[in-house]
Amino acid sequence: MSATADITPLPAAPAATPAPLAASPPAHRLRAALLMFAFPVGVLVFWHLATYGRKYSLIPPPSEVAIELYDLAFGGIYDDAFSQTLHIHLLASMSRVYGGFALAVAVALPLGLMIGRIPVVRQLLDPTFQVLRPIPVTAWLPLAMIMFGLGPRSAFFLVFLGAFYPVLVNTIFGVRSVDPRLFEAASMLGCQGSAQFFRVVLPASLPAIFTGLRLGLGFAWVVIVVGEMTGVQTGLGAIIMEARQLSRTEIVICGMIVIGIAGFITDRLVLLLGRRLLRWSPGHG
Amino acid sequence: MADTAMPIVEIKGVSKQFELQGERIEALRDAHLSLHKGEFVCLIGASGCGKSTLLRILAGFEQPTRGEALMWGMPITGPAPARGMVFQDYGLFPWLNVRRNIGFGPASRGRPAAEVRETVERFIALVGLQRFAEAYPHQLSGGMKQRVAIARVLANDAELVLMDEPFGALDAMTRERLQDELLEIWRRTGLTVVFVTHSIEEAIFLADRVVVMSPGPGRIDSEMRIALPRPRDVSAPEFNDIRRELGRKLHSNLARKAA
Fold this sequence. Notes:
- Chain A is mainly α.
- Chain A has helices spanning 26-51, 62-74, 86-117, 119-132, 137-148, 152-176, 180-188, 195-227, 236-245, 249-277.
- In chain A, helix 2 (62-74) packs across helix 10 (249-277), helix 3 runs antiparallel to helix 8 (195-227) and helix 9 packs antiparallel against helix 10 (249-277).
- Residues 1-7 and 13-21 of chain A have low confidence and may be disordered.
- Chain B is an alpha/beta fold.
- Chain B has helices at residues 51-59, 98-108, 113-126, 142-155, 172-189, 200-206, 237-258; strands spanning 9-20, 23-35, 40-44, 66-71, 74-75, 83-86, 160-164, 192-197, 209-214, 219-225.
- A 6-stranded mixed β-sheet of chain B has the order 6-7-8-3-9-10, with helices on both faces. In chain B, strands 2-1-4-5 form a 4-stranded antiparallel β-sheet, with helices on one face.
């Protein structure tokens, strides 16, 4: 092969017109920020007007919820059984959410890759999963309690279940929708057989896998309350259930708010990670 | 190039049939063709004439139903780095930047990292993409993507470069520029090129030899040696004569098919 002979560079390719960087002027950003807060502020005002100063309102006004949230986190106001316990419940729920999610990924990711890639595994498992998938996590609750007993193990299992299917389904989809052209390109470049798995299949399906991870983690937070209805003592779901029985609606709302914020922060972190890993993908970069 | 030397590629009585929704399609019937090292051959013909099928058999993506395809006398049984393919839709790996796309072949064949790096730099320079070495495919224009695709097969020691309407999706100016660059690379490297096109002008501009194919069933109809000196002037009268003659050959095929 003589492609090495006499190689001097051809003139450089003409520069591509640089894509306009999305540097929005400050006025636009201010407008976006105002719009972003307009709706929640509106809801808060409505909530306040509808509940404040009404003696028999079952829903506490926002100010009461804010005070309760402070007491849950730092104590020093009511000094009851709930004061200064937020971090315990938050940590308990987070460990279940991330633990269940991690286990779901550890099982669903390899399984999805195999179902997507190996016909015999697909024929063996895919129909069963298709039937199991529509069963809601709540329907698994009694069975989980029988299998894993009352307590954190059931909660863990239910979170696992909630995160499992989004990861599985999106991984299968990602693997199956790899452009066949890329396999041809890889094989004519000398990357054949099982080597294609790591060099083509895995990177090509990464955007879809990533979508699955994001959805899965979202679902893990969604099912945490159900998971913690199984008789655990700690966790955001547990205090919501306990506060409900005690008619402490302001604590119920605090629990909801904390779950929302924790889920949101988690999602942002995953998104940030995805942006780094998927810089190459026009839909993510 | 003496015709007595061993051909780099021989196609002997190759036929290819496909089963498409229970119907049997004869994509290629009894094709014979020899290529010599360093030749630039264009395959031309209307759609359905089997030119892409022939190219895919050469690449090893398809196996002939009958007959045999040989490279250096050995049957082509599957894709291999010695036969690099440049696709019309580029086929670049979107998750790799320009540098790593070009290094994909050498790296997956286990070449030492330093050697891969050195090879990659050389071929990035060859196609003039130094400034875009870190760019990802979606950030490149069509012409730049096709330069990467060409550099990628060259960096992988391809001896035979198979090009399936590589410039078909590009605008006219980019196409002309890439045609010039391709000829320049071909002249410098002594590659053997099989180039599929449906443009008569492109075929005459590029090829040593134009192979005319015709559809229904796909087959090789005739060949024409282009003896014009390079660089060729597309507006020269000699160029026009060849264009007319080649056009007649192509159209007589179509007329026959319609009859």
